[in-house]
Design goal:
eleven-stranded mixed beta sheet, single chain, two-stranded antiparallel sheet, globular, 11 helices, about 300 residues, alpha/beta, Arc Repressor Mutant, subunit A, D-Maltodextrin-Binding Protein, domain 2
Length: about 300
């Protein structure tokens, strides 16, 4: 059994389509189909049920996939250990990070990292939080830079910095919605029920956090629009079209936000820890640790 075989079978399992998997592997669909048949012949079992749409794993296929992921993780861990033994002169790290965080964070982190490790290739996967979690669980990424909002028991985390979430809204809209505004641009969270809110689609870290917050305070939010970008939500709110709860990082990126339109939550400030998250069974070497330390230094 070679690594190529493991990668090919896992790709079909993840894509739930031989055609899509072939495209992503840059091989022809007939070649991949023939390859899978040869593996099944060799194993003496069917790995995929081709009668379902999309294609699904058989019981034997599920066992194969679980073991294949473990074998690839062991191989990756071994390669990282060899990389450390060679003092980090060559190698690769695969980072998962939300798109807007990548735009702000990576230009601050990578210059210092490349100065320390010029021979290390950095591959970046940008997606929303739940897809990133899936990517590190399946071994597609080595670690993530994300808010620590998901209770994933197979992940360990490394603290990078604390980040506040704030409300972006024009004062006249707050007054029309009868929100209670305190000193120093503070607003009472219990009073924002009537505000038209721009929120992120489910699966994003901010949406997970604000949904928990609304549930805690028994608030049924007045959702004006669901979006895929904190930046879009922030900019729309800054134009007076509604309100948005976003990380302070987003405010820095938005550029069109007046400081008078930024509100903290008076008695219930919202913040989260931004962390590096990785599988507990992953080998985290000196290169990864140095990346975490650089991120901590430049972002704190």
């Amino acid at each position: 059994m070679d690594c190529r075989e493991l990668v090919y079978i896992l790709k079909v399992a993840d894509c739930q389509s031989i055609t899509k998997a072939a495209n992503e592997l840059y091989i022809s669909q007939p070649s991949l189909s023939h390859f899978i048949l040869k593996v099944e012949e060799k194993m003496g079992v069917k790995l995929f049920d081709r009668s379902t749409n999309p294609i699904s794993l058989t019981y034997a296929g599920e066992k194969y996939v679980d073991t294949a992921r473990q074998m690839l993780r062991l191989n990756e861990n071994l390669l990282r250990e060899f990389r450390d033994i060679s003092q980090g002169k060559k190698g690769r790290i695969k980072i998962g990070i939300p798109k807007e965080r990548a735009a702000y964070m990576l230009p601050l982190i990578l210059p210092e990292f490349y100065n320390l490790y010029p021979g290390i290739e950095v591959k970046v996967y940008e997606a929303r939080t739940m897809l990133l979690i899936d990517s590190v669980v399946k071994g597609h990424t080595d670690f993530l830079i994300i808010p620590d909002t998901v209770d994933e028991k197979i992940l360990d985390t490394y603290f990078i910095y604390e980040e506040e979430l704030v409300l972006i809204c024009k004062e006249d809209l707050l007054k029309r919605a009868e929100c209670r505004i305190g000193s120093r641009n503070q607003v009472d969270i219990e009073s924002i029920r009537k505000l038209p809110l721009f929120v992120l689609n489910k699966g994003h870290a901010v949406r997970i956090t604000v949904d928990k917050l609304f549930k805690k305070h028994k608030i049924i939010p007045n959702i004006a629009m669901e979006l895929s970008s904190n930046l879009t939500a922030c900019r729309l709110a800054a134009e007076g079209l509604g309100a948005a709860i976003v990380p302070k990082l987003t405010v820095r990126l938005a550029q069109n936000v007046d400081k008078n339109d930024i509100y903290s939550f008076a008695d219930n400030p919202i913040s989260w820890k931004v962390v590096a998250a990785y599988r507990r069974d992953s080998y985290i070497g000196e290169i990864e640790k140095d990346f975490f330390e650089i991120a901590k230094k430049v972002l704190s």
